Amino acid sequence: MQHLISVIVPIYNVEKYLSKCVDSIINQTYNNLEIILVDDGSPDNCPKICDEYAKKDDRIKVIHKENGGLSDARNAGMRIATGEYISFIDSDDYISNNFIETLYSAMKAENSDIIECDIVRFEEGTEPYFENGKGEIDSFTTEKALSLLIAENKFHQYVWNKLYKAEFVLNIQFTKGKLNEDEFWTYRIFGQAEKVTKINKPMYFYLQRGGSIMGESFNLRRLDALEAKTERQKYIEANFPKLEKQAKFDLFGTCIFMCQSAMKFMQGKEKKQAKMIIKKCVNGNKLKKDELNMIERRNRFWISFASKSFFLCCKIRSIIGIGF
Questions:
Q1: How many domains does the chain have?
Q2: Could you say which of 30, 108, 165, 274 would form a disulfide bridge with 101 (CB–CB 3.0 to 4.6 Å)?
């Protein structure tokens, strides 16, 4: 028996790319789909395109709503989703025709709760180039999967290159109004799962375009990532104490990266405000001497330096070209 799989597509101002995205979903080798197109108050022809697709394919449901942002659109899709599995696809990306079937089959075989595939990045105006992976499948327990997620090793924060059991997803809403919404959400989903699987097969095609949210120049909104990782730190300390130090080191490293970015790309009051936000995060996550000794030797010097004189360390790293 094929389970019903809900595919949620948040849509805003992407008329140039939308048809390719939706076509890649409706032409999946796995047919038992509920395709939820969420028009997030798009000002272009996307609403009309969505309605036209719904007339052609009875698996498609369309939501028209006022603009509320990416997270709000995903939440709206989840509210009407009835599938036993959930996938999220961004509306300027597309997927291989066997994306759903391959992930679903591997999940069933592994008895896992979440599965992730590899992605292919490509820039606007180019065709994606990739080599087919061998399709190796690795599965991990909750704590190990979270550790790999924190390290961005095998698993990544992206919401969209995965298939989830709905029971692990529908009770956790996306945080509205944040730029790094994936980082507020993914670790909590992993924390609920008993087994998480990775398949070494590139099946999700991620368009990197200048006009997208993540294509914006560095600004204060990018510091949402620090808020997300600070919340993750509290979650890890409360639920997975063995991973506490790993998450803390990662948070501290992100503070260094954000500070260097602010120094390089920001000016005036915004730069000053960014440094205040970063300093508050650093002060709330100070590294102890025994924790510094646990850091890999190749990273220990800079982390130790930053823990003693944070802004001076970031300035020197920027001058000599480390970190970019």
A1: 2
A2: 30
CA distance 310 to 178: 26
Q: Do the Cβ atoms of 106 and 198 come closer than 8 Å?
A: no
Q: How confident is the model at residue 144 (pLDDT cuts 50, 70, 90)?
A: very high
Look up residue 159 and give its amino acid.
Answer: V
Strands 162-165 and 85-88: antiparallel
Residue pointed to by tokens 């995903």? 74
Which DSSP symbol is given to 160? Answer: T
Rounded CA-CA distance 287/295 in Å is 11
Q: Note down the domain range covering 295.
A: 218-320
Residues 89 and 60 in one domain: yes
Separation CA 26–CA 24 (nearest Å)? 6
Q: Tell me if the pTM is above 0.85.
A: yes
**Closest to 183 (Cα-Cα) out of 147, 224, 213, 221:** 224
CA distance 185 to 177: 13
CB–CB of 158/142 below 8 Å? no
The span from the CA of 232 to the CA of 249, in Å, is 12
Using the predicted structure, report yes or no on whether residue 157 has a pLDDT greater than 60.
Answer: yes
Residue that terminates a domain, selected from 185, 214, 243: 214
Instruction: With beta carbons less than 8 A apart as the criterion, state whether 116 and 161 touch.
Output: yes
Instruction: Fill in the amino acid letter for 163.
Output: L
